[in-house]
């Protein structure tokens, strides 16, 4: 599957680094960082295609299609926090 980016995605003009948690970030700052990225994905017109693309790749890391990937598979935000996280739109 080719990547779904066509220029209409919500992150088209953004620094993609905001979708990758800095290595040493943990706990609440990490959850806020991910929530910010997920909030952007939640406004994206190609969110489903982005998520499908990310699931098809091996070793995906970062936030794609509103989910965080840890290199082994996708990790939902709910799993990371132990409860549903409220994400500002
Ligand atoms: S779903 Fe998120 S990471 Fe994927 S293209 Fe849209 S904004 Fe970017």
Task: State the main characteristics.
89 residues, disordered C terminus, binds iron/sulfur cluster, alpha+beta, 34% helix, single chain, three-stranded antiparallel β-sheet
Q: Mind describing the biggest β-sheet?
A: 3 strands, antiparallel
Strand content: 5-15%
Sequence of strands across the biggest β-sheet: 1-2-3
Can you count the helices? 3
| Strands, total number | 3
Q: How far apart, in Å, are the first and last alpha carbons?
A: 29 Å
Q: Which regions have little confidence, pLDDT < 50, spanning 5+ residues? A: 84-89
Question: How would you describe the shape?
Answer: globular
Arithmetic mean of pLDDT? 85
Walk me through what this model shows:
By secondary structure, the protein is α+β, with helices and mostly antiparallel strands. It has a domain at 26-81. The protein contains 3 helices and 3 strands. A 3-stranded antiparallel β-sheet has the order 1-2-3. The longest helix is centred in the middle third of the chain and has 15 residues, at 27-41. The termini are far apart. Iron/sulfur cluster binds at residues 9-11, 19, 40-41, 44, 46-47, 50, 64-66.
């Amino acid at each position: 599957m080719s990547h779904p980016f066509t220029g209409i995605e919500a992150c088209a003009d953004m620094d993609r680094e905001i979708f990758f948690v800095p290595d040493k970030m943990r706990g609440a700052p990490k959850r806020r960082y991910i929530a910010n990225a997920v909030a952007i994905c939640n406004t994206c017109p190609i969110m489903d295609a982005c998520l499908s693309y990310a699931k098809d790749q091996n070793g995906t890391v970062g936030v794609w299609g509103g989910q965080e990937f840890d290199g082994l598979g996708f990790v939902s935000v709910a799993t990371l926090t132990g409860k549903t996280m409220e994400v500002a739109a």
